Amino acid sequence: MTLKRPIQMCVFAFLQIILPIYLIYNSIANSYDTIFIFIVNNSLHILSMYFIFLSVYWENFNYYLRYIFLISVIICTGISLFRFEAKAVFSYKDVIEDIDAIILLPVFIVLVINIILSKHQKHKKIDIDLSFPFKEGKYLIAEGGDGKKSFFTNYHYKFKDHAKWKESMRYAVDIVKINSIGFTMDGIIPLNNEKYYIFKQEVYCPIDGIVYEVINNVENNIPYSGNYLRGIGNHVIIKKDNYFIILAHLEKNTVNLIKGQYINKGEYIGEIGNSGYSNRPHLHMQVIYNDGSNIWKGTGVQFTLNGKMPVKNMRICID
Questions:
Q1: What count of Cα atoms within 13 Å lies in the side-chain half-sphere of residue 294?
Q2: Is the dihedral of CA 168, 169, 170, 176 positive or negative?
Q3: Which residues are CB-contacts of 22 (< 8 A; sequence separation ≥ 6)?
Q4: Is the confidence at residue 1, as pLDDT, over 50?
Q5: Do 217 and 164 share a domain, yes or no?
Q6: Full-model pTM
Q7: Which end of the chain is more exposed for a tag (fewer CB within 10 A), N or C?
Q8: Residues in domain M23ase beta-sheet core (predicted)?
Q9: Are 242 and 299 in contact (CB under 8 A)?
């Protein structure tokens, strides 16, 4: 995404701090005159918090805040249930006064269902299983799932700048590193690449195959500057039959592979950088099925990492 840092900080502060606190407060502070309006409003509080829990980039503040806020909304809703004294079931006056909540509730129901479906494994048999490209540490899937079903779980498919090759981006994944207490960086959206825990992390080949393409000379971006080069920056593409496995946004001059060479699963590929169309250090992965004439016009393939489908806000621990 291309929002500059101040705007990015304001957006995420609202979504990850202000709005959850507002929902917690409303869950316990508001009083309602009818049972119907009580159910509508509190269902809306829980569903909207669950939507935030599932869809927001929790890497920017703290991953575990999502659990604290969701549990707090549920607890406060439970407390309000014991304090609820209204005896009337329904009132047209209350419906008119709370029409916004009545309209928003089905909207959030649809959004949450779409996110859940986008994280569902489409087929019992996945076409390709990859080994996780890092050998140790804790990681967070920042983007992942079926982007065609929900923009909120995986923006790659519907992002306007990906329009020409969106089908190849349908199941693309972004990965960042997370520490034991839920942070992915030192500070809040720092401008220094070295502050991101995944920066310069070694990347390893996820599958046996042929090196199809190598780019290794692109400079890093300043995080969240808004000034990013087009393309996927330094990257390696591995070909396995008609599958093309892409590992992108690598560090300059860390890849020592040659096009056409055979590479084994587990071999060193390079280090994480922040090159190409990238707003912070992370690893971009995707798998495309194509005959090789123009891989970007191929079909994005649903894949697994160590047997599990990577979906947004999933934690992966490698011993």
A1: 5
A2: positive
A3: none
A4: no
A5: yes
A6: 0.91
A7: C
A8: 202-291
A9: no
204 and 135 together in one domain? yes
CA distance 248 to 240: 17
Contact predicate 303/287, CB 8 Å: yes
- Structure tokens, 43: 């269902």
* 57 and 188 inside one domain: no
User: Which residues, 6 or more positions from 171, have their beta carbon under 8 angstroms from its beta carbon?
Assistant: 144, 145, 146, 147, 154, 286, 287, 300, 301, 302, 303
Q: Which secondary structure element, helix H or strand E, spans residue 5, and what is its range?
A: helix 5-13
Residue 238's H or E segment, with its range, is: strand 234-240
Measured between alpha carbons, how far is 117 from 157 in angstroms, rounded to an integer? 15
Scan for tokens 């039959």, then name that residue: 241
CB 76 within 8 A of CB 27: yes
Q: Is residue 123 part of a domain?
A: no
In contact, 142 and 57? CB cutoff 8 Å: yes
Tokens of 101: 């909540």
Range of the domain at 292: 128-318
**What would the mean pLDDT of 112-135 be, rounded to a whole number?**
84
Residue with tokens 């892409």, as numbered in its chain: 246
H/E stretch holding 95: helix 92-97
Which residues are registered as beta bridge partners of 140? 176, 315
Which amino acid, residue 31? S
34: which 2 tokens? 């009818």
| pLDDT tens digits, 11-59 | 888 999 999 999 999 999 888 888 999 999 999 999 999 999 999 999 9
The dihedral region occupied by 82, where left means phi > 0, alpha psi between -120 and 50, and beta the remainder, is alpha
From 167, 161, 255, select the one nearest 213 (Cα to Cα). Answer: 255
Whole-angstrom Cα Rg for the chain:
22
Q: How confident is the model at residue 276 (pLDDT cuts 50, 70, 90)?
A: very high
Number of domains in the chain: 2
The residue from 88, 118, 148 where one domain ends is 118
CB 65 within 8 A of CB 82: no
